[in-house]
Amino acid sequence: MYDATATAGPAVVSDLNTVSVYTTRSDAEIARARLEADGINAIVIADDEGGLNPGFYSTYGVRVVVADEDLPDARESLGLDFVAIPLELLQTMVDHARDGAPNEACGLVAGVDGAATKVYPMANADPAPDRFTLDPAEHFAVWEDATSNGWEIIGSFHSHPTGPPIPSESDLRGGADPDWANFIVGVENGHVAVRAYRYADGAASPVEIDHR
After folding, report:
1. Which residues are catalytic?
2. Which one, 42, 59, 82, 186, has least CB within 10 Å?
3. Which domains, from first to last, does the chain contain?
4. CA torsion, points 68, 70, 75, 79, in degrees to nearest 10?
């Protein structure tokens, strides 16, 4: 996750760092148990409004956090998926999302060997606060530019102007390439944040963002 309000590195809670985010408490507890079995202390952080709203998880996520120094080992233990992207490219997504509000903003991401090299802000061909459509002509122009530089399209990005960076039902129905990293710019704990996912068979799997 990238927190656009942080000066450097991912958002932290004291000396703890989020290693993964889940939509159910049970999945988070399984991850915590796996980490504990590998000798890595982990904590599950979630809010279900005192047990009154367990569905809160699906909107805001359940985080598994570990100590900063344990983060690399925790990622390896959980077999997490990664995408490398420079901070300035993440900031390009955030800036485009702000410019596009109150509608969703969108674009494509090019790279080499799974590492991002350029972000292409694009017009939303179907402007609305809850959906986006990449313009086919712009899409082709981006592909031509990326190819001419020896890159390939490795992902997309879009914004949730007033919601969390969690895939919506329309996102999952979008039919994105399962190899793409799909970045979402949203609002999390009052901050602008970016998370990434891969979509396959109507489900999303989290992709850790490495922006060091």
Report:
1. 104
2. 59
3. 10-79 (3.30.70), 83-210 (3.40.140.10)
4. -170
